[in-house]
Design a protein that fits this description.
The chain is mainly α. 47% of the residues lie in helices and 6% in strands.
Length: 431
């Protein structure tokens, strides 16, 4: 049975169905409430901001985990009738501009960026500056995540959104733009701390400041700015978590499309897609956290962890990710700081689940890599395990120089809907 990509939902003061025909990034909707009506009040802006979370979770994050898992070998395809996923499972030139999931990811990511920009601009008119800083910080989270998704999957990214014709820049520029947006949000929050009244108007679960710092650390790392990544990582309170929360009316999208149906994809096995030399150590308790065994019906390995039920929360970042960012930054310094790199790495390797806000713990003996190359290999291995199915593995494979034989594609082709309307669309990468 072919999977139907969920509708894109936009929630402001009223629910408005958004259609994205063709390939334009022109998001004006003549049937919707006008921008002046929706964006003229603090409550209206908050409504639009809440809609960003839903669109991001159901479309952008879901698609990133889906494509990333199959391309990197974390997951296996369950039904070849799922056309987009079948392309990912084959890889190479089988993935082309017709891929509906990539087209949906491209359009909804830019939709989130467009709406977030409107919220951020509208916040300047809000008299309560604590409420305004909350709007800016919250909207920036989903803007940065969407910019990061596009920059991780495509070789070049559009310079503007909301227009049909736009130039493109290298994907590292996408990461630096996300970081710049985060810096502006943190500046606004530092000038006027987020008000309690704003926090009551958004879904529970999101720690705005910690998430902004975590995303700054992530994208600074991806951009190769290790000093900035380390500073941002040190600003994250690792005793706290930040999550996308779900309920019956708005279920966990990965549970809804994969776990509950067994019709889309499942974990490949206990290796989590790692080669033999990097396979998880025996007794690594992250394996039973992320997978569960079905004793009677194939496949044996099934999704567990953050995708086990309709109301299971999905983290916006993992504390373990931040610790591993610190380890990598120390290891990648011009003169590697091996003492601190190994110390941070072992915080993840030896961590018990009870000591992690999300309940993740390898609970293994400490490792003792002797060189910077060895510690980086251990960091890569532990990122793949600790951050399983987070959508970050393909970027990691490129950064750590993993061979193409371990992945089915390096970067993705541009959707035909973009190419057909924008003559500046770059050539597709060869692999």
């Amino acid at each position: 049975m072919k999977r139907i990509i969920p509708s894109i939902i936009y929630t402001g003061l009223a629910a408005v169905l958004i259609s994205t025909p063709g390939c334009k990034k022109d998001f004006n909707n003549p049937t919707a409430a006008t921008s002046a009506q929706v964006l003229s009040t603090a409550k209206g802006l908050a409504g639009v901001a809440v809609g960003l979370q839903r669109t991001y979770a159901n479309n952008v994050a879901n698609a990133v985990s889906d494509a990333n898992g199959l391309i990197t070998g974390e997951t296996i395809l369950m039904n070849a009738g799922n056309t987009s996923e079948f392309q990912f499972s084959k890889g190479g030139n089988s993935v082309d501009g017709t891929n509906a999931l990539l087209g949906n990811l491209w359009s909804t990511a830019h939709k989130v960026i467009y709406d977030a920009n409107n919220v951020i601009a509208g916040a300047a008119t809000v008299a309560d500056k604590g409420y305004a800083s909350g709007l800016i910080g919250y909207a920036t989270i989903y803007k940065a995540l969407s910019m990061g998704a596009v920059s991780s999957f495509w070789e070049k990214v559009p310079d503007t959104v909301g227009t049909s014709i736009t130039a493109f820049s290298g994907r590292t520029t996408g990461f630096t733009r996300a970081i710049a947006s985060i810096d502006k949000a943190l500046t606004a929050i530092n000038a006027a701390p987020i008000s309690a009244s704003f926090l009551t108007d958004i879904p529970a679960g999101v720690d705005i400041v910690n998430t902004l710092n975590a995303l700054k650390a992530r994208y600074s790392l991806f951009a190769g700015n290790y000093a900035a990544a380390l500073t941002a990582a040190n600003a994250v309170d690792l005793s706290k978590k930040s999550t996308l929360n779900f309920e019956a009316a708005n279920p966990n999208p990965i549970y809804n499309t994969a776990t509950s149906t067994n019709n889309l994809y499942q974990p490949v096995d206990s290796t989590l897609g790692l080669p033999v030399a990097l396979a998880p150590t025996a007794g690594d308790k992250r394996i039973p956290f992320y997978t569960v065994i079905n004793q009677t019906i194939l496949p044996r390995f099934r999704l567990n962890g953050f995708w086990i039920a309709a109301n299971t929360a999905i983290p916006l970042y993992l504390p373990g990710e931040i610790t591993l960012i610190k380890a990598e930054c120390y290891a990648r310094q011009t003169t590697p700081d091996m003492v601190n790199a190994v110390a941070e790495l072992n915080k993840v390797v030896t961590k018990k689940a009870v000591n992690d806000p999300l309940g993740i713990g390898a609970d293994l003996a400490a490792v003792a890599p002797a060189t910077a190359a060895e510690v980086l290999t251990e960091i890569y291995k532990n990122r793949c395990i600790e951050l399983f199915h987070s959508g970050l593995k393909l970027e990691d494979m490129r950064r750590f120089g993993r061979p193409d034989t371990e992945k089915k594609r390096n970067l993705f082709p541009y959707p035909f809907r973009e190419r057909d309307s924008n003559p500046n669309t770059p050539a597709d990468p060869a692999f």
